[in-house]
Amino acid sequence: MRTRSIRTLTGVLGAVCIATLVAGCSASPTPPSIPTALRLAQANPVPTLDPANWYDNVSQGYMHAIYDTLVQYGPNDATIEPDLATGWKISNGGKTYVFTLRKGVKFSNGDAFNAKAVQYNVQRMTSKAAAAPYAFAYSAIQGFSAWNAGTAQSLSGVTVLGPRTVEFDLTEPDGTFLNALAMMSAAIGDPKVEAKYGLQGFSDNAVGTGPYALSKWVHGHQLVLTRNPRYWGKEPSIKTISTTIGLSAAQQLREFQKGQLDMIGTWGGALDAASYQRVEKSRKLRGRLRHAPADAVTFLGFNVATPPFGSLAVRQAVNDILQRDAVNAALTGGRAPLDNAGLLSPGMPGYRATDAYPYAVDLTTAAQLLKSAGITPAHPASFELAFEAGAPNVLSAMQVVQQELAPLGLKATLKPVPWNTFFTSAANASETTYGMYLLTWSADYPDPQDLFDNLFAANGPANFSGFRNAQIDDLVAKADALPTATAEESQRIADYRQANQILLQQAPAVFLNYGYQDALVQTWVHYGSLGALGLGPVYTAEFSQLSLGAHK
């Protein structure tokens, strides 16, 4: 028996030796391991993980991984989709919303999610104590004013109808109420966190129902998220998201080139102008660059209360004079696409890629328009052109504007202004001395309402132009009242498009470019859409939609 066993063993070993010789006398290489951690970086600290305190794009991606909202956006457009709510009904002329909640959802710590958690989070975020930056977005909810002022015991417009049913009652129809509920300010956190850690402990002890959970946060240094084992949806492929905080754009690019970071992007403070130029010079890096427009517009606004810009002829003339591509090249290096559709940016409902800007460089027409307003090279008009002091490339771009306007009698004095000072003074167009100003506005959510109501509505908080047009205001008010994601959506978009055409004709601004988003992505990072990389219409990376392959 013993001899037979030895023979058998010898025969097996011999077969192994023969196989090895056939293979070239070398052991088979070990297959490369698949990493389980996504390595990211941020230039600036993550301000908050508390939905009530959210206001920035830096926090948004991490909060989106930790928390869910009742509804969410599609990965590549502005379509409203279910999230923690599986469905909803709109009634009472657009003033009542009833949501049915997803069954069996738990927070990452095991606590149950239900309608009371929804009510708690909305009340907390809109309370006087929270002082939430985006509380105003929910001001249409019944009882908001008294609750937000601290004179009511609760927010009367949010009612729990059952464990999985919650009702919102509004004082007036709000067409973008679903958009507001998709914002991170309306994300749902565990109510028990505040009871345990206090109002200010909600951020450092973030607990949500999302695909990831907060594991470690060393402020200013590192943020680590790990896969939520209780997540109700599809389990993410990536187990850990580890972010190093405090790396400059140049440092991030170096670490990416060394293979120490899996992706970097504008959302992390990377790929500034200098870094982007280095990427453009490298064939290898260019192949890893991903680029997408953003729901933001940059424009030169006219203060219609300051001569000579109360004149439509002068505003149209400036549009005929400026070579927008030259200004854009100086401002962004050509990275941002030209804005040919006014306030309707790519990814936003109503945008059409075929829309054409109604003005082209035509100095003859411009000179005639200016002459009709009494402006010639011999009788010039002088004004101040205000812009943010210290912003990259802005001074050189404004010098281009200055040089192009001067030969036809428009003399611009460049006025760099600190950002906070600019907002304070520009907010009152009738008193400021600015004749023109440069502004970039990023949409809070991908819907025309956000841009029209803020920038050019009669009482818009960022209507620094002082522009007023009753026809535009009527169209926008009508569109604002129609709910998104309903049968009335087509009429709503038609109204915004008509308002946009009037706006372009009335020329309260020279529209320069749309926003842009960039990311460098290693070859081993797999993604299904640009939205998963944070290059979608809401600037939010979908970490749960990413996967990793072996490093190459």
List keywords for this structure.
four-stranded mixed sheet, 20% strand, alpha+beta, disordered N terminus, six-stranded mixed sheet, 552 residues, globular
What does this structure look like?
- This protein has 552 residues and is an alpha+beta fold.
- The protein is built from 17 helices and 18 strands.
- The chain has a six-stranded mixed beta sheet, sandwiched between helices. Strands 1-10-9-8 form a four-stranded mixed beta sheet, covered by helices on one side. A four-stranded antiparallel beta sheet has the order 4-5-7-6, with helices on one face.
- The longest helix has 21 residues, at 2-22.
- The protein starts with a helix and ends with a strand.
- Indicate the structural class: alpha+beta
What is the beta-strand fraction?
15-25%
Number of helices: 17
Strand count, sense and barrel status of the largest sheet are: 6 strands, mixed
- Give the % helix: 25-40%
Which strand order do you get reading across the main beta sheet?
11-16-12-15-13-14
Q: Whole-number radius of gyration?
A: 28 Å
Mean pLDDT over all positions: 89
Count of strand segments: 18
Q: Which segments are poorly predicted (pLDDT under 50) over 5 or more consecutive residues?
A: 1-26
What is the 3D shape?
globular
Distance between the termini: 51 Å
